[in-house]
Amino acid sequence: MLRAQLIVNADDFGFTRDVNEGIVEAHQRGIVTAATLMANGAAFDHAVALWRRNPSLDVGCHLVLVGGGSLSKASQDLPAGVPDLLEALAWGRLDVYAELAAQVRKILDAGVPASHLDTHKHTHLAPPVLGAVARISAEFGIPWVRRPFDVPGMASHFLPPWRVRAAARGLGLLQGRFSRVLREHGCRTTDHFAGFVATGRFHTAELAAFIRALPSGSTEFMCHPGFCTGELRGARTRLKESRVRELEALTAPEVRRALEERGAGLANFRDLRGSAD
Questions:
Q1: Residue 38's pLDDT is what?
Q2: CATH number for the 4-266 domain, one of 3.40.50.11540, 3.20.20.370, 1.25.40.10, 3.40.50.300?
Q3: What is the pTM of this model?
Q4: CB contact set of 207 (below 8 Å; sequence gap of 6+)
Q5: CA–CA separation, 274 vs 182, rounded Å?
Q6: pLDDT tens digits, residue range 242-263?
């Protein structure tokens, strides 16, 4: 039987300085092994500086098409929300590949050897975005791409509202085509993913229970730790105080014990050997 391996990836590196500091804290004292960096984040330079002092943190690209400024078109903003993005895609008003490629180049030009790709708000579930992400994976030699479909049974650990459970079930209908596109471009994924239904709603007990039930093979667990100071409170995001709760869970001794009880190892994308999807 395959050993259970857990990659704990913190999204939104570069969003604000207090989020950056929380991610690094969760890496230094907790179980976070990787993070994905927002090239258009207000605290991008701060995140890169922190990473240089903490090179054991495996960094990838958190590709953004919703919120913030565009890197491919000067002085323009990206769509404000997912509905706006879908409208822009439908009318051909956004060159997705050009925007995402510009973000990847900024991260690589900063000296960060990106190992994996995911998208803010999981926008690569949209076919035009997925095609661009898969193309970027192949062209830039960044093989790992997030497959954001929760492993079965997640809801039993994190008890999300019915709307979130329904959304997760609906996303499951996209898995077939999603996997086929990644396979055609030679992209790699972990065996499992977890975190969609857990976002903003887990404490130490829920995380420890999930880890004790971790499936065999490799699992990416998405999280959003951070400190919540005036900078984050003033930012446009629903995830504020919840980032502190996640940070507390990710650094809790009980969670380390749960890993030991499960016999699971922590991993990152640089070191992981996984299957092509």
A1: 98
A2: 3.20.20.370
A3: 0.91
A4: 198, 249, 250, 252, 255, 258
A5: 14
A6: 999 999 999 999 999 999 999 9
